[in-house]
User: What shape does this take?
Amino acid sequence: MPLRLTGPDPRYQSSYLAALRELAGEGNGHYLELVIPAEPGFPGVDYSLSRLADPGVFEEFCAYTRALDDPATPKPSSWVTGTYLWMVDETDTVVGRISLRHELTPWLEEVGGHIGYAVRPSARRQGYGTVALGLMCTVAAERGIDPALVTCDEDNVASRKVIESNGGVLEDVRNGKLRFWVPTERPTA
Assistant: This one.
């Protein structure tokens, strides 16, 4: 299945907004929106669905999201530096997003993990999550993260299968989250 991870890019605006609308329709718009209130030392950002329809705002959103890979980029005090990529299929359609947090805070160690992902509803059950997690594991390995912590809700069977398909080993369950350690260094043939 052809799938690639790409940095946020304004050329995907239409496809990205369609994916965001799908996720918002099921109450998960927060997976693709970026709305963070201001706090001391951080001005806040508002990249909601309604604002992202504006091409200029969407371009700004893409630039900011790419910049989150740089420790110097302003972000909320509870955030760590991370790599945020989009899953793009062979038709150049955004089918989801995946992120790598470069370090773990106590909250991320308990609940969030190193890697988080979301696949738009119309693209689920096609293997995109499995492929994307494998690709992101390569990015994690390049950053010296091995293994990576990946979590999912206890009742999220699909996500559990994605993680286990990538070699995830269940450590335990905390706060309703299954916590898996996924090897990122892949054996070479």
Observations:
- The longest strand covers residues 82-89.
- The chain has one domain: 3-182.
- The beta strands are 3-6, 34-36, 45-47, 82-89, 94-101, 115-119, 148-153, 169-174, 177-182.
- Helices lie at 13-25, 49-52, 55-67, 106-112, 128-142, 157-165.
